[in-house]
User: What shape does this take?
Amino acid sequence: MAMFVDQTTITVKGGHGGHGAIAFHREKYVANGGPDGGDGGNGGDVILHVDDHMSTLMDFRYGKKYAAEAGQNGQGSRKSGKDGADLIIRVPRGTLIKDRESGGIIVDMSTGEDYIIAKGGRGGWGNQHFATPTRQAPRFAKNGLPGENREIILELKLLADVGLAGFPNVGKSTLLSVMSSARPKIANYHFTTLQPNLGVVRANDEVSFVIADIPGLIEGAAGGAGLGHDFLRHIDRCRLIIHVVDASGSEGRDPIEDFEAINRELLAYNAELAARPQIVVANKCDIATDEDTLKDFEAYIQEKGLPFYRISAVTHQGVRELINITAERLSKLPPIHIYEPDYVAPEPAPASPDELIIENPEDGIWIVEGRWLDALMGRVNFSDHESKMYFERSLRDGGVYKRLEALGVCAGDTICMDELEFEYQP
Assistant: This one.
C-alpha cells in the first residue's frame, strides 16, 4: 500500500524577472539608429491548483523546492524577453496552505479556485526607455527583480461529510465498504487502516454524501499516541460523526467505557469537534454474547439524547437504515467548513534612505532606486511647486545628495529616479 502523507513543508519561489537589454539599432544607410534594447520578461508565478485525482501529499515527500521559470532577457530591435512559464503545483482538494514561520492559514484549497502562492519578479527595462534629447545613446538598462520566495506548510484535511470514529478493530473499514463504493484493505488485527479511506454513499438517486474511515484511535491519541493524532485532523471538517462501538464483547471490552474514551480524545484534540452531532452505532450485533451489556449501553446512549442503532456490517443488518438516517441528519446541518485565511503578512521594516541603491552605469548618469524613494515619490505631485520643494528637501535631509557627492556626482550629471530625470545642481 502506498504511503499516506498528509503534512509536509516546501519552499516556493517565483521566477526572476529578465534583464533589460543594452542594444543600438544597426542598419545600412541608417545613421545613429538609436537605442533599441528590449525589456526583460516577467518571471513566472507559482500557482496552486486542486487536483481531485490526488488523495495524498505523497508527491511532495522528496520534492521540497519549487521555482517558476525566470523571464528571458530583452534583446535588440526592441524585442522583449519572453515571460517565464508559470509553475502549477497540484494539491488534493482540502489542503490547507499555512505560512511556515507564523503557522497562519494563507488559503484553504477546497473551493477549486487556483491561488498564486509566489509571484514572479518584474522584468527590467531595456535602454530604449532611457533615451532623451540630450542622452541619445544610453549604455545602461535595468535588471529584472527577483520573484517572491516563501516557505509553506501543506496540511491535508479531507473533505468528508461524515467521519467514522472508534477504537481499532470495531469494524469501521467493513462498514465503509458496505455503505459506499470504497474498498479499503481489511484484516482482523489492530491498526490495519494506516490511512483515511473515503467513500461516496448514495442514499438514493438524488442524495449522496462522502464518508471517511479514520484510522482507529487509542487512548492518548490527542496527545500523539499511536496513529490517531496524525489522522484526527481529517475529521475536523466532518459535519457528522458516526461513532462505531464493538458490541460483540469478543475482546472483553466495555462499550460504555470505549464510547467515553473516544469522546475524551476528541475533546482533548478539539472541543468544537467533540461537540459535532453524533450517531452511535453498536456494530457486530450478530455475534453479541451479552444482551444485558448491550441493553445497558443502549440505555446509556439514549439518556444522552443521541441516536443509537444496532447493526452488523458483515451481514448488512441495519446498514440501509443507518444510511437513510445519516442522509436525513446531513440535510439539516450546515455545509462543510471552509477555513478562513488568518495569515497576516509581517510589516516590512521601515524604509530608510540609507538602503537606497545608487548605480553609475556610465559617466554622468546616476540611477537611484529603493523602497524609501518609491514611497516618497508616491506622496509628491510634481506639477505642484510646493510639492516639488518638499521632494527636494526630503532628498537633502535624507542624505541622498550627500551619498551621491561621496560617490563622485558632478554638477550637470543626470539623476534617474524611476521615470523622473533631472540635472544635479549642488
Summary: The chain is about 20% helix and 20% strand. The two ends are 76 Å apart (CA to CA). The chain has three domains: 1-156, 162-330, 350-426. Residues 350-426 form a domain with the GMP Synthetase; Chain A, domain 3 fold (CATH 3.30.300.350).
